[in-house]
Amino acid sequence: MRKNLIHRLLAAAVAATALLAASGAAAQVKERTLKFAFQNQAGHPQALGAQKFADLVAAKSGGKIAVKLFAGGVLGGDLQTVSALQGGTIELTVLNAGILSAQVKEFAAYDLPFLFNSAKEADAVTDGPFGQKLMAKLEDKGLHGLGYWDLGFRNLTNSKRPITKADDIAGLKIRVIQSPIYIDLFTALGANATPLPFPELYPALDQKAVDGQENPNTTILSSKFSEVQKYITQTRHIYNPQALLISRKTWDGMSADEKKIIEQASAEATLFQRAASRGAADGALDALKKAGMVVSEIPPQETAKLRAKVQPVIDKYSASVGEATVGELMAEVEKARK
C-alpha cells in the first residue's frame, strides 16, 4: 500500500538528518536568511504554520538558516509574491493552490466548486500522485513545491443581507481572488465578481467599494472582517489546499544537506499547520457570532440550486484544464471516499 507522502518524507528526512550529524557534514549548511511572505495576519493558522517552519529550520540547521516572516501581504499580493519567487527576491510563500493556474493551468482543478466533501479527502488527493504531479509541473516555472497546507472551506460574507437561498447572491458586489474560475463562479451566481489582491480587501469592505467577500472562517476572523461585514453564510463552496513553495533559484543554490533540512521542516510543519488550521476552524464561527455577525446556513435544496448554477463553470474549466486531468482528479477523490 502506498504510504502517505508526508510520512515518507518525514522518515527519509529524519534518517538523512541523523546521517548528516554522524558524518560531520554540517559544514554543507551555509548561513543565510530566507524571506517567507504570505497574505494572512499573525495568529492565523497560515502564520502559525510559517512560524513552525521557521523554528524547525533554525533548529535543524543549528541556527545557520534563518526564516524571516512577512505576514499580512506586506510584500505584495499573491501574484506579486509568486513573481518575486521566480526572480529570487523572495524565497518562500504559501498561497491558495488554485492561484497557481496562472503558471500551470491544471492547478485550476483544485478550485472546482464543491469538489471535496472533507479535508481528509483533500489530504489524500494532494499528498498522493495527483498533487505531486502538479507540483512537479512548477519546476519549469521557477518554483519548487514543498507541500500542501490547509486553509479550509470558503464561505461568503456581505454587508447587505442574510443569504439563505441561491438567488440571494444575485446583485451583490463580491471580492474574489485573482483567479478566472472565481470570477466566473460568482458571475454564474449572479454577483458582480470583483478581483482584488488580499491586502486591498479590508479597505474595500470598509469603504463599501465591495459588498462582500469569500474566505474560510479562520481568515474572516483573523482579518477582522466582522468589523465591516454583518452577514456570514456557510456556503462551503470551495475547499482551499494551499501550496507551500520555495524559489527554484534558491532551491537550486542549496546543498543536498540544506535541501534535506528544508524538506524535513516542511513535512513536519505541514502536519502541524493542518492540525492548527482545522482546530481553529472549529472555534472561528463561534467567535464571529460573538463579534456580532449573523450566521446563515444554506438548506440542502438551495445547495443543489447552487451546484446547478455553477455546473457550466465546472464544465468550462474541466475543458480548459483538460478532461483527462479532471478525470484523474475525480478518480483520486472517489478513491479517497472509499
Automatic annotation (TrEMBL):
Coiled coil, from the record: none
The protein, known as: ABC transporter substrate-binding protein
Transcription regulation listed as a keyword: no
Cited InterPro entries: DctP_fam, TRAP_DctP, TRAP_DctP_sf
Keywords, alphabetical: Signal, Transport
Similarity comment text for this entry: Belongs to the bacterial solute-binding protein 7 family.
Source superkingdom: Bacteria
GO cellular component: outer membrane-bounded periplasmic space
A GO biological process held by the record: transmembrane transport
Segment forming the signal sequence: 1-27
